[in-house]
Amino acid sequence: MSWSADAGAVSVTHEPVATDQVVAGAPSTGWVELGSAVDDAEVGVWEMSPGAMSDVEADEVFVVLSGRATVEFADGRAPISLVPGSVVRLDAGAETVWTVTETLRKVYVTPGV
């Protein structure tokens, strides 16, 4: 099945980040599924407002459309700086802290179930 979407313009509704995940500020996040890709992988848009939050990652590849952030890893790996055009691969189970300085919007692809 073919489909297309304007990932930069799609509306994303935010909700506050759970209190136990907030590291700094009052970040909010939201996402919207755009459709499926090869082998039923999910494709969507995820957004986070400024602030910092901890997370446990899903297996995914993403491309940053807008905003700025840093992703730090609990296992001591070097942090990743995110800017428009960044392409990143995250492993399921990685413990991270996302620090967003400019609302971040990314297109993600995760494996199908």
3D structure, described in words:
With 113 residues, this protein is an all-beta fold. The protein has one domain: Jelly Rolls (Sandwich), CATH 2.60.120. It contains no helices and nine strands. Strands 1, 2, 3, 4, 5, 6, 7, 8 and 9 form a nine-stranded antiparallel sheet that branches. The model has no long low-confidence stretch (mean pLDDT 94).
What integer is the average pLDDT? 94
Percentage of residues in DSSP E strands: over 45%
Radius of gyration equals 14 Å
Q: With helices defined by DSSP (H or I, 4 residues minimum), what is the helix count? A: 0
Number of domain modules:
1
Measured as a percent range, the helix fraction is under 10%
Shape label: globular
CATH class: Mainly Beta
SSE blueprint and pairings:
Blueprint: E1 15-16, E2 22-24, E3 28-36, E4 42-48, E5 51-56, E6 60-73, E7 80-82, E8 87-90, E9 95-110
Antiparallel strand pairs: 1-3, 2-5, 3-4, 4-9, 5-9, 6-7, 6-8, 6-9
Put the structure in a nutshell.
This protein is mainly β and 113 residues long. The chain contains no helices and 9 strands.
